[in-house]
Amino acid sequence: MSTERDTGRGTEHDTGDGAVLRAVGLTMAYEQRVVGRDLSVDVPSGEFTAVIGPNACGKSTLLRMLSRLSRPAAGTVYLDGRDIHRMRARDLARRLGLLPQSAITPPGISVFDLVRRGRYPHQSVLSRWSAEDERSVDRALAATGMTELADRDVDELSGGQRQRAWVAMALAQESPVLLLDEPTTFLDVSHQLALMELFAELHRSGGRTVVAVLHDINHAARYAGHLVVMSAGRVVAEGPPAQVLTAPLLSEVFGVDAVIIEDPLHGGPLVVTAYRGRDSATASPERTATA
Amino acid sequence: MDVPAAAARRRTLAPRVPVPGGRVLSGRVAVRSALVCAVLLLLTTAVTGVALGLGEIVYSPAEVLAALAGRASGAAELFVVGWRLPRAVAAVVFGAMLGVSGALFQTVTRNPLGSPDIIGFTAGSSLAGTAAILLVGSGFAVVAGGALAGGLAVAVVMVLLSRGGGVAGFRLVIAGIALNAMLLSTESWLVLIADLDAARAAALWGAGTLNGADFGYVGWAMALGGAAIVLTVLLLGQRLDLLDMGEDTSSALGGRPARTRLYAVGAGVLLVALVTAAAGPIAFVALAAPHIGRRLTAGTGNALIPAACSGAFLLAAADLAAQHLVPGRTYPVGVVTVVGGGLYLMTLIVRENRRATL
């Protein structure tokens, strides 16, 4: 795991084992409005990386660019050393999966049917459905605990189950790299924890590289091995949670007073925050910057 | 740092009971879908059989079968195979084409009203076809070229109009309804200022009719349309399903949503333009067929095949009604679909309005 951001800038990157995703010199812009400039991020291979930062800091935008949903105004995103904008759509989808926030559940779709669609990048006009597809869907359902709900309509499920069904869809894609955009938002705490456990398990036993945009700093600190902290379109800190999370950083980035103690249950850092007053919250460049 | 209990619990779940033959088509939805399509095709065949038998001279089913097999008298063969068969087959194939076109447009616009006959594509093809008849002549190639150009021109206008609002949604439908009205009134004006004979030909075509359909004239449209349907289902079916899951999901799965929408609109315009060129504008089949297919199959996804089946049945039935509902008079099939489809549209609007999903 490297915390230096300048190694091998713009050159082919030696990935060692497993996939690695890196952004080099990104300029993020909507229409003409620049929301972030000269942004570089390394996503360590086989690690759980969490991206945190205040609203409108550009973390969702970064995720969109890492997954080719948006094209950066300048700069390049490399996956296994290849520019993702030069890859074929299905090749990219086989290597890199994404669970976006904007996912729409088609009315009346069953869990199995939804998860099955995650296999699209592995299929072609001639080979529609293989034993491998079947196994992947089964594995994804088992990993998310959705096996017994496979024939249920997604619409009928609880919020937590529905999100697990979507995660299963993304897992069935079997991409070595998986990006998640605020995957636990709108869930109650036990469902949040269940999903965080699942993501941690994915990289621990499956060796996948997981990148998640998260709201909860303490969830990020507990489950992620690598933190990327963003503020106003810049990456302000990168590294293991215990090193990155400091009171001055939290003060600067989130505009809160914070005490960092050792988590009595899990070890690692635990952030206890205190409200400092309305005026000290960091000014964001544009509210609309995070989707 | 580890809390493996939850993960461990998940692992102890009983394995799923294997389903014989796998779940290639995902179980009950596919079975129901196949059943519904089979029933629709059966009904379509029955309607077609009746259409072949009825007319000035009524033939029994046995006589119709004999004629189709080439074992009937010269007169029976002329009536059944020479005159009635092209029309009946055209109704089935054009119905399927309109159904698929409607399903494509409704998927792209994500709106049950986003079908080509509501948002101006049929009207655009019709206006350009009328102009072609009035200015050039009524050969198939001329009218087809005009209709296709009209459909594509509408597509360009719609893309410009819906800019900023996205191709999906309400804005496009409203703009399309307005455009539709403008195109229809322009067509009326063209017919009014034309000389009488040309105007009569244009007006007859403009009502949407299968009268006098013969394979020489409509054969090309049917062959091209059939090929377009097969290619669309094979190449776009899955990608349209992904589009239903949202732009970002589709893109993340390698479904290339922007290109998929472009191809879908292209195929939709082609199908509508071919039918319009061959038979004139036939309204409401493209609107109703996908809904009916979807309701009957209770399925999800693009539902191209159920839409094709219900479209075929609807137009075959409508043409049978146009020929024989009022004894001694034959109406253009477009009149029947407008009357029937108008009622359908009203119930649809009332229902969707109540659910506030429009």
Series of H and E elements of chain A: EEEHEEHEHHHEHEHEEHHEE
Named CATH architecture of the largest domain in chain A: 3-Layer(aba) Sandwich
Low-confidence stretches of chain A: 1-19, 283-291
Q: What is the rounded Rg of chain B?
A: 23 Å
Total number of helices of chain B: 14
Biggest sheet of chain A, open or closed, and with what strands and sense? 6 strands, mixed
Strand order of the largest sheet of chain A: 6-7-8-3-9-10
Report strand % of chain B. under 5%
Separation of the first and last Cα atoms of chain A:
29 Å
User: By helix and strand content of chain B, what is the structural category?
Assistant: mainly alpha
Largest sheet of chain B: none
Rg measurement of chain A, Å: 19 Å
Percent range for helical residues of chain B?
over 70%
- The proportion of residues in beta strands of chain A is 15-25%
Q: Give me the secondary-structure category of chain A.
A: alpha/beta
Which range best describes the helical content of chain A: under 10%, 10-25%, 25-40%, 40-55%, 55-70% or over 70%? 25-40%
- Please count the helical segments of chain A: 9
Poorly predicted ranges of chain B: 1-27
String of helices and strands of chain B? HHHHHHHHHHHHHH
Description of the molecule:
The complex is a heterodimer of chains A (291) and B (358). Chain A is α/β, with parallel strands linked by helices and 291 residues long. Chain A has two domains: 3-244, P-loop containing nucleotide triphosphate hydrolases (Rossmann fold), CATH 3.40.50.300; 245-291, no CATH class. Chain A has helices at 59-66, 89-95, 111-116, 131-143, 159-172, 189-206, 217-223, 241-244, 247-254, and strands at residues 21-30, 33-43, 48-52, 74-79, 82-83, 96-99, 177-181, 209-213, 226-231, 234-239, 257-262, 269-274. In chain A, the strands form three sheets. A six-stranded mixed β-sheet of chain A has the order 6-7-8-3-9-10, sandwiched between helices. Chain A has a four-stranded antiparallel β-sheet with strand order 2-1-4-5, covered by helices on one side. The radius of gyration of chain A is 19 Å and the shape is globular. Chain B has 358 residues and is mainly alpha-helical. Chain B is built from 14 helices and no strands. Chain B has helices spanning 5-11, 27-53, 61-68, 74-109, 121-135, 140-161, 170-193, 196-206, 215-243, 247-252, 257-279, 285-297, 304-324, 333-355. In chain B, helix 3 packs across helix 4 (74-109). Chains A and B meet through helix 2, strand 6, helix 3, helix 4 and helix 6 of A and helix 1, helix 2, helix 9 and helix 10 of B.
